[in-house]
Amino acid sequence: MLFSSARPRMAAIMGLFALAFSVSAQTARPTLRDAVDAAWNLSPQARALANRQAELDARARAAGSFLAGAPTVSLAHKAGRGAASGAQETEAEISAPLWQPRLRSATASQVEADRAALSAQIASARLKLAAEARELAAAAALAESQLELAGRKVGEAQALAADTERRVRAGESARVDALRAGSALREAESARAGAEGALARALANWRALTGLAQLALLDEAQSPDGAHPLVQAAEAQARAARSRLEVAEADRRDPMEVGVGLIRERPGGGAPTESAIRLSLRVPLGGDIRNGARIAAARAELDAAEAELDASRRLATSEREAAIAELEAARRSERLALERERFAREAQELIAKSHRLGETDLPTRLRADAERFEAELARARAAIEARRALSKLNQANGSMP
After folding, report:
1. Cα dihedral across residues 205, 209, 214, 216: positive or negative
2. Contact status, residue 111 vs residue 125, Cβ threshold 8 Å
3. Band (272; pLDDT cuts 50, 70, 90)
4. Up-side HSE of residue 358: CA atoms within 13 Å toward CB?
5. pTM strictly above 0.85
6. Fewest CB atoms within 10 Å of the CB: 120, 139, 272, 353?
7. Which phi and psi angles does 193 have, rounded to 5°?
């Protein structure tokens, strides 16, 4: 028979799927939030987070210090000419830089602004990973649905091919009907093989992003509109740029240095050693030559950050409006696909009954079967597209899974 060679392969595949479904039943599928957490742990941002936080902590400790930098120690020794003179002078001094007025508070504010910007960047990066996870979950759900329908189509095509072969042997149908049924069976098996490949690709992409072996279900509820992490990240970057400008404007000269030193002098010729304490204050002179370029660069950075903030707000608004329209369209398409499936199913059932009674030829039956399969596939695709559109709306609202 034409379909007998497909039976061993079909039995093996069904056994593998039964084993996979058994394992899936024993282990609960991860949620989308679990998937985003797993993807974040694998991301470069997460691996560098500890060091970035340590950098901010070190900068905060430096801004909280009384000194603007590390102290320095200097030593000097001078001896008189000629070995007989015996005159010597030794000087030791320790000096430390002091904060300029307003610079210490401006530096501390910059550290806090950078800390807030880091937190906002983390939230923004996690939201981008959520978008990838949502899209991959939707693609996997579509691949799973297509494989399920393709597997059922193969089973129906096998049953039809077996019935047609029986009719040919009984002399009730021509040999050409068996050939047509066998061709339909091979077409169904080819569609199933394509669905298997699509699901394998979806699984590979999912594992590459999350490291998880199991797929997450695309089963989100609609979330309310809130503050968007991308906009919040742009706002934090603008505040950080403004704080850097304030630091540049406050840091108009090198820090002052105060020093205290000890001088020990032996005049020579048997005179007693004399000691003295020296206090020093070093005040550098500032000007536009030193800091003009830094202030100009900081102002340019602030202008760019504010422009990026405006662009982020416009983008968030437009994406939210587009997502709302897309969800409404997807839900309408789903309702229409359900109606189409109902019509195709009822028509196929009537034609199949008529074919069993010998009142309808095989080509008509095959067309009805194909139309029902296409309608079911369109309905499954429309249902998943509606769920994907809902996830896109949540993404546009800035909501995590």
Report:
1. negative
2. no
3. confident
4. 6
5. no
6. 272
7. -60, -40
Q: Cα separation of 212 and 204, whole Å?
A: 10
Whose tokens are 């059922």? That residue is: 152
Residue 281: what are its φ and ψ, rounded to 5°? -140, 120
Are residues 100 and 250 in contact, defined by beta-carbon separation less than 8 angstroms? yes
